[in-house]
Design brief:
The protein has two domains: 7-247, Type I PLP-dependent aspartate aminotransferase-like (Major domain) (Aspartate Aminotransferase, domain 2); 254-371, Aspartate Aminotransferase, domain 1 (Alpha-Beta Complex), CATH 3.90.1150. 42% of the residues lie in helices and 13% in strands. It contains eleven helices and twelve strands. Helix 1 (7-28) packs antiparallel against helix 8 and helix 9 (298-307) crosses helix 11. The longest helix has 32 residues, at 240-271. It is globular. It binds pyridoxal-5'-phosphate (PLP). Residues 58-60, 84-85, 87-88, 137, 163, 165-166, 187, 189, 199, 201 line the site of pyridoxal-5'-phosphate (PLP).
Length: 372
């Protein structure tokens, strides 16, 4: 099997720098909130174009911190997409608030702004839940349509939280993910476009008050002093060692984003006419967290690829509203027809900056042999 995501090839490229950077942390001994964490936050904020960034322990914790900072609580409705990784919805549920789904766009798989408007209207009309926030996901590395989403948010006076876990570095109208929410979140899980060597994440904001709140939550709700706890928080810090790794990866990240474009256009070229290739809007540059295609023949294609030692993956076989863990929300099959159709047909091909041209050609040939 070729690797689905080749992290070893990347490590070979930056091996010397990473080893030195990590060793430096072992030597200086500031394992918690060491100087590398502050430097990383500075560089990430500058990349995203936000005033503040706080590194944290995972994308999941970034989401939880954002929801906690905005005081999301039982009785609140948080509007979001049914087509995402579970953590997006899981953290809303963990706060005790109610996740409310709006269906997705059939081409980008991101939240459909008109469905979002319709859904918020319905919840308001029912009057049972308090509309609190819109949690937007940038799925597979492409930013959502924020101009349209912000218009809906403004119409209802709701803040936007951005789950940019899959799309750090992507742009929408020249601006970077995750700078489109009042709070933006990202993940440094190893398989994400910008990953560390363990779990990691970050939150972004322009708002000083929210930043202070987020910092307090990051460290057990601390106030002006370590033992002056002013709210219920978490221990959600990023390790200094992971920050040191990320600083080395950031050096090659812009080039890797370019390499990802090359891989994606290679795929587009060999797969057009065979399967539904991904749609990237003209306002967007995707960072290609996943290269996902749609086909009625996906099972046969996946089997043929497997026979040729090419792994594939399904993101996401079950849309959120039909997951067992969320049964209590009372959704049924048919409630989110677009997300259900996409979940049933989409699969991902190997995607990383170092995928060779001959592998792409081979994948094209195998898919053609099934489809034609
Ligand atoms: C990966 C992911 C997360 C969670 O990030 P972790 O760092 O693994 O906790 C949240 N949302 C989305 C959309 C993701 O893809």
């Amino acid at each position: 099997m070729i690797p689905f995501i080749d992290l070893k090839k990347q490590y070979r490229r930056i091996e010397k720098d990473v080893d030195l950077a990590v060793k430096k942390v072992f030597e200086h001994g500031q394992y918690i909130l060491g100087p590398e964490v502050a430097e990383l936050e500075k560089q990430l904020a500058s990349m995203a174009g936000t005033r503040y960034c706080l590194a944290c322990s995972s994308g999941t914790d970034a989401l939880l911190m954002a929801l906690m900072a905005m005081n999301v609580k039982p009785g609140d409705a948080v509007f979001t997409t049914p087509f995402t990784f579970f953590a997006t919805v899981e953290m809303v549920a963990l706060t005790g608030a109610t996740p409310v789904f709006a269906d997705i766009d059939p081409d980008t798989y991101n939240l459909d702004p008109s469905k979002l408007r319709e859904t918020i209207r319905k919840v308001k009309a029912k009057g049972k839940l308090n509309p609190k926030a819109i949690l937007v996901v940038d799925i597979f590395g492409q930013s959502a349509d924020y101009e349209a989403i912000h218009a809906v948010a403004k119409e209802f006076g709701l803040p936007v939280i951005e789950d940019g876990a899959q799309a750090m570095g992507a742009t929408y109208k020249g601006r970077r993910v995750p700078s489109f929410g009042l709070i933006g979140c990202t993940s440094f899980f190893p398989a994400k476009p910008l990953g560390c060597y363990g779990d990691g994440g970050a939150v972004f904001t322009d708002d000083k008050e929210l930043y202070d709140k987020l910092f307090s939550i990051l460290v057990h709700g601390r106030g002006s002093d370590k033992y002056d706890n002013v709210c219920i928080g978490l221990n959600a810090r990023l390790d200094t060692v992971q920050a040191a790794v990320l600083l080395q990866k950031l050096k090659i990240f812009p080039e890797e984003i370019e390499l990802r474009q090359k891989v994606a256009s290679g795929y587009n070229r060999v797969l057009k006419d065979l399967v539904k290739t991904p749609s990237v809007c003209k306002d967007c540059v995707s960072v290609w967290a996943q290269y996902c295609v749609c086909s009625d023949r996906f099972e046969a294609i996946q089997a043929a690829l497997r026979e040729n030692d090419i792994p594939t993956a399904r993101y996401y076989p079950i849309p959120m509203h039909l997951l067992k863990a969320l049964n209590y929300l009372g959704y049924q099959k048919g409630d989110m027809p677009v997300a259900e159709k996409v979940s049933g047909h989409v699969f991902a091909l190997p995607m990383h900056p170092y995928l060779e041209g001959d592998v792409i050609e081979k994948i094209g040939k195998v898919v053609r042999s099934v489809v034609k």
